[in-house]
Amino acid sequence: MHNPFVESSKELRGLVFKLSGALSTVTRLLMQGVEEKDEIKLLQFALGLLVKQEDFERCSVYLVDGDQLIPAASYQLDNIGNQPEKAQNPLDEYQIFSLNEGIIGKAYTSRQFQVCNHCSSNPDFIRDVPHQGYAIGSLICVPLKMDNEIFGVLNASHRETDFFDAWHQRLLCVYADILACEIANTRYKYSLSRKLEKRHEQLTQAQQSTEVQAQEKFEILSDVGKHVRSPMNAISSMLSLLRDTEMSSEQRKYTELAYGATSSLMHRLDNILDSARVESGDISLNKTSFEFRRLLDKVIDAFAGLVHRKNISITSRVAKNLPETLKGDADRIAQILNKLVANAVKHTEQGGVRIIVDAQDQGYGKPIKVTVSVIDSGPGIEPPLLKELINSDIDSLSGNSGFGLVLCRKLVEQLSGELSIESSTNGTTVSFTLELEQPSNSAKAAASFSQCSVNLICHDKSYEEHFGGLMAEWDINYTHVSNPRSQLPQLLQATGLGTQELIIFIDVEMPNEQGLHLARHIREQSRTDSLKLVALDSYLHVSQTDSSIKELFDDFVTKPLKYHDVLRAMNALYDGWCPLSDPRDPTQTVPAVDRKVRALLAENSSMAQEAMVNLLERQGMDVTVVKDGIEFLQA
After folding, report:
1. What is the CATH number of domain 283-436?
2. I want to staple 369 with a disulfide (CB 3.0 to 4.6 A). Which of 30, 360, 443, 591 is the partner?
3. How far apart are CA 520 and CA 151, in angstroms?
């Protein structure tokens, strides 16, 4: 008996299966379209889905090329012409159509799908594969279009006539719309990729051209710098010699101005050469193990003379947890520090410059994060210039100001670090942070002065703070003697009892020779071996030549104060060794060195040669002048 409900149920299930299959086909096409960048591969994949999952025996796509429709991709079942299921190269066997030729051309020109259910009797039908040996019964051609643009035509064929129904027509129309969108996306991605490749090629060429120009600039500047530096060094040396001669106040004023201008010019020349070296990429990093405190001492020592002439101070404070030895590019770090300190000293007329070093341990096996801050008490940086220094490159600076700071920022960035600048009317703080490796043997040797008491008599507050920091780092019983007349009797009484070693550091540059008067008074009041006196004087090393100081003091430390200089004095005096003449034993003297230092000088500039010979001979050296490096090695 006929059951209409069962028949309709079968039709419904069939429709559900069709919809499910179609949805799966469309979904897979969309997923492939997101990833695929090659248009032909996308078309082959799309046609393969139609042939494998739907009722089509053969599918192909024709794309517009000028005034023609060119076969781009095809796919067919294995039971057509006894050929395996495969994606073919349609250009080898398929017909090329003009835009209005055949049913394919009609679909393109009308922009509507075309159905042919009896191809053999249709005068518009033209075989797309002329030599293929089987008849095509039914054909559907659907234009691939999106908005107002048409890309080509999607074709589906079958051997049977009247094969394609309304379902096939709707499915192919939806499929063609999606495929057209994916073609547009693929072409856009390809176009964008080509633009990016072209842009990358242009940028690469521009970078190479810039690097070549930077290298040429560096070579030119280096050559110019070499020829300028030699006479400038000679002028600076001659002026240095002239400053030590007797002259009137007016002559000294002019000499100091000339010396300052020469130093400024040399500093500017160094910055220009360094910037050219950075731009050309001629800076190579060299990681070695080094002592950060010793590096800092050398930087401070280099500015001792300038600081003394400007009557300002320069001090440092190093974190107690900073390892004795670190691993990094010591030369580059010293270069950055020198430039920052030079800039700070240049802009400081009163007060002083402080260098603060902090260390952050990031855990076992990880590098130490070291932050160095250079703080001056100058007038500060104007906000517009400060913003420019933080964000600008060397070439984009509007003026000469801040050139060295921008260069330092570039150098810090080459070390994978960061540099920051803070400024106000009370001064400027420039900080840079680096991650430095910690060698396995970098454990800090702790100084032990458990039975020692240290006192400082000094009129400079900045040096008081600096000295106190060193004493705290070494866990030394330290007292700043602010009122010597009232505090010293009690201290001297303790040394007389022999309960502790007492070392007193006295600033001999206090006004009206207060330091020398205090030293004489202390010596008169106490002659015990438990008391040691250390002179603090300027970089001029007065203590080495002044006999009155040698008679009063056991040792001396030059200002600016440096970590290793103070530590050397502490170790020497605490261990009982006295490097200077002992006032308690007139027969004890420092043994003289019975030899003269010989200096070999290779300099092709006669003016610089004469200046260097004069400077070295004034230091008591025996100078031999050679013509070049070969003669230098043979001497």
Report:
1. 3.30.565.10
2. 360
3. 105
Burial 526-562 (b: 16+ CB within 10 A, else e): beeebbbbbbbbbbeebbeebeebbebbbbbbbbbbb
pLDDT in tens, 257-266: 887 788 777 7
Question: Per-residue b/e over 112-140, b at no fewer than 16 CB within 10 Å?
Answer: ebbbbbebeeeeebeebbeebeeebbbbb
The Cα-based distances of 611 to 237, 251, 262, 267, 632 in angstroms read 6, 20, 15, 20, 19
Spatial distance between the Cα atoms of 372 and 341, rounded to a whole number of angstroms:
11
Please state the CATH superfamily assignment of the domain spanning residues 4-193 in this structure. GAF domain (3.30.450.40)
CA distance 293 to 299: 10
Cα 25 to Cα 18: distance, rounded to the nearest angstrom: 11
Which amino acid is present at 147? Answer: D
Looking at the DSSP assignment, which residues form a beta bridge with residue 64?
Answer: 69
Q: How far apart are CA 329 and CA 416, in angstroms?
A: 11
Question: Between 52 and 503, where is the model more confident?
Answer: 503
DSSP structural state of residue 62: E
Does residue 369 sit in helix, strand or coil? strand
Annotate 292-315 with b (16+ C-beta within 10 A) or e (fewer). Answer: bbebbbebbeebbebbbebebbbb
Contact 236, 255 (CB under 8 A): no
Q: Where in the chain is the domain with CATH 3.30.565.10?
A: 283-436
Q: Which long-range contacts (CB under 8 A, 24 or more apart) does 278-282 make?
A: 278/394, 278/407, 278/410, 278/411, 278/414, 279/214, 279/217, 279/218, 279/394, 279/395, 280/211, 280/214, 280/215, 280/217, 280/218, 281/211, 281/214, 281/215, 282/215, 282/218
Asked if pLDDT for residue 121 goes beyond 80, the answer is yes
**478 vs 452: CA distance, rounded Å:** 9
Comparison of pLDDT for 445 and 464, the residue scoring more = 464
For residue 370, which of 388, 358, 362 has the smallest C-alpha distance?
358
- Give domain 452-574's CATH number out of 3.40.50.2300, 3.30.420.40, 1.10.340.30, 1.10.580.10: 3.40.50.2300
Percent of the chain with pLDDT over 90: 7
- DSSP code of 561? P
**CA-wise closest residue to 491 among 450, 572, 483:** 483
The span from the CA of 234 to the CA of 606, in Å, is 9
Give the chain's end-to-end CA distance (angstroms, integer): 126
Interval 210-224 mean pLDDT: 70
Average pLDDT taken over every residue of the chain: 76
Residues 6+ apart with CB under 8 A from 166: none
The rounded distance, in Å, linking the Cα atoms of 539 and 408 is 27
Q: How many CB atoms lie within 10 A of CB 214?
A: 18
Look up the pTM and report it.
0.55
Strand, coil or helix: what is 270?
Answer: helix
Cα(134)–Cα(138) distance, integer angstroms: 12
